[in-house]
Amino acid sequence: MDASALRRGWATADEVCEIAGIGRVSLSAVKQQIPEAHVAYVIQDAEDVAVAHLGRQVTARQRTAMEARGYQCEVPHCTSDHLLEIDHVTGWAINRTTQLDDLAWLCSFHHSQKTDRGYHLRGSPGARRWVDQAGQPIVGAARSADPTRHASRAGPMPLPI
Questions:
Q1: Measured between alpha carbons, how far is 130 from 107 in angstroms, rounded to an integer?
Q2: Rounded to two decimals, what is the model's pTM?
Q3: What mean pLDDT is reported for the chain?
Q4: Which residues, in sequence order, are CB contacts of 78 under 8 Å at separation 6+?
Q5: pLDDT, average across residues 25-43
Q6: Could you give the C-alpha distances from 51 to 24, 43, 77, 100, in angstroms and in order?
Q7: 3-class DSSP state for residue 137?
Q8: Are 60 and 68 in contact (CB under 8 A)?
């Protein structure tokens, strides 16, 4: 979409508002999707095109760095190394940035606890603490039985984030 249309809140007849692969859409539909979307600003003139990708998705470099520091749930005492999800520790909706030190691997069980029950990771990579809704540390970070648990694998499993 044209940046001026986004700032203004509506598109004029000569302004583009479309989703790649779908075509023209209403500005209100695009604005609803922006918090979850992979956004790219494309600035073009007669001689050049510049592209900036924005949003919550991790870059290839960030993903590689995360894999290098260990492909395991970062909740202390959790040894899950499969079906991991990348989590924004602070919460992307709060700071609107995707910084490497604010990203963590979480197994689906702990990601669900964080999302649905108010648990949180605290601390920097390598020194994480798991805390409850009141900020009290959870020692051992007990998990319920996980029927999807598999034997440890060599290397990370590529999964969409």
A1: 13
A2: 0.56
A3: 76
A4: 72, 107, 109, 110, 141, 143
A5: 66
A6: 20, 6, 42, 22
A7: strand
A8: no
State both tokens at 31. Answer: 């604005």
Residues 18, 8: Cα–Cα separation, whole Å: 16
Contact of 17 with 8, CB cutoff 8 Å: no
pLDDT in tens, 92-120: 777 777 888 999 999 999 999 998 999 99
Q: What is the gyration radius of the CA atoms in the chain, in angstroms?
A: 20
| DSSP letters for 29-77 | HHHHHGGGS-EEEEEE-SS-EEEEEESSPPPHHHHHHHHHH-SS--STT
For residue 153, name the pLDDT band (cuts at 50, 70, 90): very low
Rounded to 10 degrees, the C-alpha dihedral 137/88/85/148 comes to: 30
How would you label 18-41 residue by residue, b for 16+ Cβ within 10 Å and e otherwise? eeeeeeeeebeebeeeeeeeeeee
Query: Distances in Å between the alpha carbon of 78 and those of 32, 82, 104, 129?
Result: 36, 11, 13, 12
